[in-house]
Amino acid sequence: MGTVVTIDVVGHDRSQRARRARDLAIERAFAWFDRVESVCSRFDATSELRRLCAACDADVPVSPMLFEAVRFAIAVAEETHGAFDPTVGAKMEARGFNRDYRDGAAVDAGVNAEVPVSFHDVVLNESARTIRLERALLLDLGAVAKGLAIDLAVQELRPLVNFVIDAGGDMYFAGHNADDLPWTVGIRHPRDPLALLTRVALTDAALCTSGDYERRVCDNDTEHHLLDPATGRSPRDVISVSVIAPTAMVADALGTAAFVLGCDEGVALLEHHGVRACVVNAQLVRHTTQDWIDV
Predict the structure, then answer these.
(1) Which of 28, 248, 255, 261 supports an S-S bond with 241, CB 3.0-4.6 Å?
(2) pLDDT band per the 50, 70, 90 thresholds, residue 216
């Protein structure tokens, strides 16, 4: 997934048996990241996602994991009227996001980025568990897969009660910290990498932040990895979105959608779905949901 994943567990029983159970749970948690990547990566020609995308105009039986990931992505696309759209993979490749993080090799799925496609071209059959792509397209589940992996890892770690998973800034906080208090986390200032925008306290919740500073298009000052499907360009009005939600998949996907929608519509979307969020515009003005609390 092109990022470093860390898991921290605190306050656990120090007996040998408990340590062994903890270590096995952590191993299983890490394994989910490899499993999700093998299914959902658009950079790996052998992934299940790429095999699906190679079979245009056919009903393709897929694994439960891929079906659920695509179904969730399409549901968010429908909810946001396409502000979030998983069919932007070819456009992302054309923008230069086409390098396999493992070896730096360029990846080409062979899909024409100039042909207009949308989430309407993805047809899911619930009873048969098949997916049909009605046009040649490349799915990009980047705003879904990492959150999914975190959420699956959380289930493995639940018996450990107090832990943190950090996957490149997409995080989940369970239980309490070493002082038996809710976790406190700082959110990076979008224009000063050495400063914090704010701090929040949370427990049993995910925090995902999307920022225009994370990955640039060939060092372009305005174009980055977040794409407005309607324009084919990066949004300008928003520079950072932080979302706190019960799951990482929800936090990441809704944060991406809010980034594209802009401050007013984005906050309205997040309010509607009952998540806490802080949206920062290009003038560094914060727009927050009503229940956002700084510490």
Answers:
(1) 255
(2) low
